[in-house]
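Thread title: Can someone regenerate the structure for this chain?

I was given the following input by a collaborator and told the matching structure tokens would be attached. They weren't. Posting the sequence so someone can regenerate them.
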Amino acid sequence: MAAPVTQHGIAIDALGLSGADAIRWAGEARFRGVQLSALVPGMRSFELDQGGRRGVRAALAAADVAACGIDFLIPRADWSDASRVSRVVDAFRSAVELSVAVGRCPIAVSLPELDPTGAALACVECGDHAGVRLIHLTPVEPAPEWLADRRESISIGLETASALAGCHDPLDRIVAIGARLGQLRMSDVDRSGRKGPPGVLAGGRLDWRGCLLAASLAPSHPVALLDPSGWDDPRHGALESARSMRWLAEASAPSRRHTG
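Best answer:
Regenerated them for you:
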């Protein structure tokens, strides 16, 4: 039996579906939560006006799934490209507006080590102003030094596949991050470096039970996500992994209430 976690779900970015279709698929598969993405069709900044945000909220309610968070995982080069600062900040502001619309779920980002254009700091300030928490995705390192006194306001998201690829034990990292852990993004890795679903990948190295147990004990109540990026068959693998971890809701389960 899987260890309890406060909330869990599936990251939709790699499912190969539009935002609305990914939400619908997750609901039909009986996932309890989804990690939205600011980069999938239907959720990109130029597509999301007030009506579009209402549509996302309605899709979540219709599928009976909760929004665990929103991925804003832009190419790392975009943070340092002076010609793209306005575009990056505007896109992030759109993600913040979507977060507010669906209940102020956190936004996951991979912050740069340096911020020469000021774009990353502008995004952090935008989230702070709206009361939307950021989760910095990193296998090992803390939030960058340029954040200075803002570092304590940003949670850490641990990507287990990245930790394993860097020869770090994800379980040790969960314990070390402690109360700052905001997300546990789960993907397994075999000896050849191939990614796959936890509990399913042959030769997988991830102690997913131990990781879930450790996350369940963290005082920050982190969200646990299946992250199917790089898997051979993301949707099939996610279903098999979720069944292995007993994450899928029973067909007779009562409807869950949504906020936002």
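Confidence is low (pLDDT under 50) at residues 252-260.
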